[in-house]
Structure formats: C-alpha cells, structure tokens
Amino acid sequence: MGSMVEFHIGYRGKFNDNISYFYQFGPSVVSESGLQDERETSAKAGISVDISERINAYWEIWTITDGLGYDGSQFTSKVGASISF
User: Fold this and answer.
1) What's the pLDDT at 70?
2) Residue 22 pairs with which residues in a beta bridge?
3) DSSP for the chain, written as a single string
4) Residue 61: its pLDDT value, please?
5) Per the structure, how many domains does the chain have?
6) Could you tell me the CA-to-CA distances from 57 to 8, 10, 20, 43, 66 in Å, in that order?
7) Which has the least CB within 10 A, 1, 25, 45, 80?
8) Segments in the chain below pLDDT 70
C-alpha cells in the first residue's frame, strides 16, 4: 500500500460553453510501504463535456516518470460522469 502527493500547476480553459479542458504537471512524492519516498514528475490532461444542465462527462489521461527518466509506457486513463442534484 502506498500514497502519492502531487504538487501541480496547470491551466483550465473552454472550447465553448459545453466543453472545457485542463492540463497540469509538476513534482510528485510517491511513498510505498517500507520503501524510501521517491520524487517523480507527473502530468494530467483532460476534457469535460456538459451533456445537460445536471450531467457532465469527462476523460482524463495521466502519466508519471519512473526513477530518473521517462520511458513513455506509464499512462493511465479515466472516464466518468457526474450528476448534480
């Protein structure tokens, strides 16, 4: 079991009234049980679409370095929706 804390800076913008985007990057501290903390760099980008006044769908892609470098193989994608009541 472990944890990660990201210290990101980024930008949010809009393509139009219903579609927005973001990107962010910065240092991350990764802690794994029994191991020394590692300092890495991570980044995220995503889009968000207002389907209706109460329903929003989003997609996000995330990546992080591994050790001293970036090998390009660590990507995670997330898709979801939120409903406002």
Assistant:
1) 65
2) 12, 46
3) -EEEEE--EEEEEESSSSEEEEEEEEEEEEEETTS--EEEEEEEEEEEEE-SSSEEEEEEEEEE-BTTB--S--EEEEEEEEE--
4) 96
5) 1
6) 23, 20, 11, 20, 30
7) 1
8) 67-73
